[in-house]
Amino acid sequence: MSVSLSTHVLDTERGRPGSGVRVELFRADEQVAAGETGADGRIAALADGLEPGSYRLVFHPASPYFRRVELELELGDGHHHVPLLVSSYSCTTYRGS
Q: How far apart are CA 79 and CA 75, in angstroms?
């Protein structure tokens, strides 16, 4: 079994990609991947070749309120895409395709 993960950040307040956002992936207390979103707000291949299981995806958006947004995910076999939509005082996420 193999698991892969991609992400992107959208700045919904300004209507543009969230570029330059630090993103980290942890399994238990071990950081297994990290990156920074590009000009298009994406990290196309944050992690490949992971084992299925529980992970923490941590975003560090440029927001006056949210210093970090942390998601606990149960990743099964296959590819997972997890976007973050963020503005100064709100955020949401979903499982993308």
A: 9
Residue 33, CB half-sphere, CA atoms under 13 Å: how many? 21
Give the model confidence (pLDDT) of 69-97 as tens digits.
999 999 999 999 999 999 999 999 999 98
Distance CA 9, CA 36 (A): 10
User: How many CA within 13 A on the CB side of residue 30?
Assistant: 4
Each residue's pLDDT tens digit, 28-45:
999 999 999 999 999 999
The reported pTM is: 0.94
Give the tokens for residue 17: 């990609």
Pull the structure tokens for residue 10: 């959208």
